[in-house]
Amino acid sequence: ITANDKLLHLVAFMVESWLFVKLFASRNIRVYWGRSEYDLDSGQRLSQTCIEIDKYKVAFVVCSLGAAIGSEFLQSILSSGKRTFDAKDILSNILGSTIGIGLAYWRERS
Fold first, then answer.
1. Which residues in the chain land under pLDDT 50?
2. H or E stretch at 46
3. Cα separation of 72 and 5, whole Å?
4. Is 38 helix (H, G, I), strand (E, B) or coil?
5. What is the pLDDT of residue 2?
6. What's the rounded Cα separation, in Å, for the pair 35 and 26?
């Protein structure tokens, strides 16, 4: 059961991460923050702070680090202690997530 459990973790996070990358049509994600300034006559935005972040980097942080590690902590809390933290699950999650992101990158390159 342990080997199958790790395989399920790997496959689930591989699919989840691949789908996360596919959510974004373009390679870069624009992130705006701060106050916008508008021309009241035309209604057009004049300026706002914006950065562009590579979607694969975002996917790695969100899926491979955030979800893969965070889910192990959350499962103990949400299951009222019935499920426990397992470092091997985290490794399977990170590996699956990284493979999913890599597959999305490879598929979009070709």
1. none
2. strand 45-54
3. 13
4. strand
5. 66
6. 25
d(CA 46, CA 34): 13
Q: Which of 17, 25, 28 is nearest to 103 (CA)?
A: 17
Cα 45 from Cα 64, distance rounded (Å): 35
Give the H or E element holding residue 97.
Answer: helix 87-109
Place of tokens 């009222």: 80
Q: Within 13 Å of residue 44, how many CA atoms lie on the same side as its CB? A: 2
**CB-CB contact of 64 with 97 (8 Å):** yes
Q: DSSP alpha helices (H): ranges in 23-67? A: 55-59
> Distance (Å, rounded) from C-alpha 41 to C-alpha 39?
5
